[in-house]
Amino acid sequence: MPDLAAWQADIPLMSRLHRITLPTPFAVGPVHTYLAEGDPLTLIDTGVDTEDSLAALQAGLSAHGYELSDIQRIIITHSHVDHFGLAQRIAAAGNAEILAHPLAQPIVEDWPESRARRQCFGYDLLRSAGVPEDLVARSDKLLRSYDLFQRPVQLTGFLEEGTTLRLADVDWQVLYCPGHAADLICFYEPGSQVLIGNDHLLAHISSNAIVSAPPLGESARRRPLIDYWQSLRRVADMDIALTLTGHGEAVSDASGLIEQRFAFHQRRLARLL
């Protein structure tokens, strides 16, 4: 995996934005978090709530001269456990503020209740599609297993489309990019043309457009593949020199990769028509 320090000559901003890679127990492999130096010292995503992940985070912070209690702000890009699982423990170490999209709030603050809603939704969806009961039960076991890798955490504020966010001493635009998750947000710095894209755009695989229960207070479920497609199209039209991802390698040709993703999904759709 390329060292992001190699980008510093072309993008000076990267000298204040550091990738810290943490282990996960999931098939996707390690997850990247990003430490943005400046005021406030900010951690973007947290990894899962395991001792191995915590130790790796502490080591990564130490390599840059920091410890957990120095973190002043945590940003959750979306409400999957590999991106927010450690937030509660990090915040408790130094009283950091915690920001996310409003749709993430009921999930990260009350995981058991949100899981129960998703289970009911999932059961109905799977059964309506004729999925055998043993596979429905297996999906239930999988969803419950995620309980082990997070601790509910209280948000202190929200980040929505159009918000300006100060990171690494420069202003970033908050972009709402649903698809992989209904509450996913990215961050774009137009001066350096850097996108913090987390799981919206991954180099090695098309992000899973996850079918999930309707957001709390809504009755109709979202159409995640349509959301994902529209969010990709939006990013494709932007000038992006470097995309910092949540897993795998950074992306230096976002528009080219997005065209590959469109072609991939077009082929899959053609098989259904």
Q: Mind sketching the topology for me?
A:
Blueprint: E1 17-22, E2 31-36, E3 42-44, H1 51-63, E4 73-75, H2 81-84, H3 87-94, E5 97-100, H4 105-109, H5 111-128, H6 133-145, E6 157-158, E7 164-167, E8 170-176, E9 185-189, E10 194-198, H7 224-236, E11 242-245, H8 254-272
Characterization of the model:
With 273 residues, the protein is α/β, with parallel strands linked by helices. The chain has helices at 51-63, 81-84, 87-94, 105-109, 111-128, 133-145, 224-236, 254-272, and strands at 17-22, 31-36, 42-44, 73-75, 97-100, 157-158, 164-167, 170-176, 185-189, 194-198, 242-245. The strands form two sheets. A six-stranded mixed β-sheet has the order 1-2-3-4-5-6, covered by helices on one side. Strands 7-8-9-10-11 form a five-stranded mixed β-sheet, with no helix packed on it. Helix 5 (111-128) packs antiparallel against helix 6 (133-145). The longest helix has 19 residues, at 254-272. It is globular. The mean pLDDT is 92.
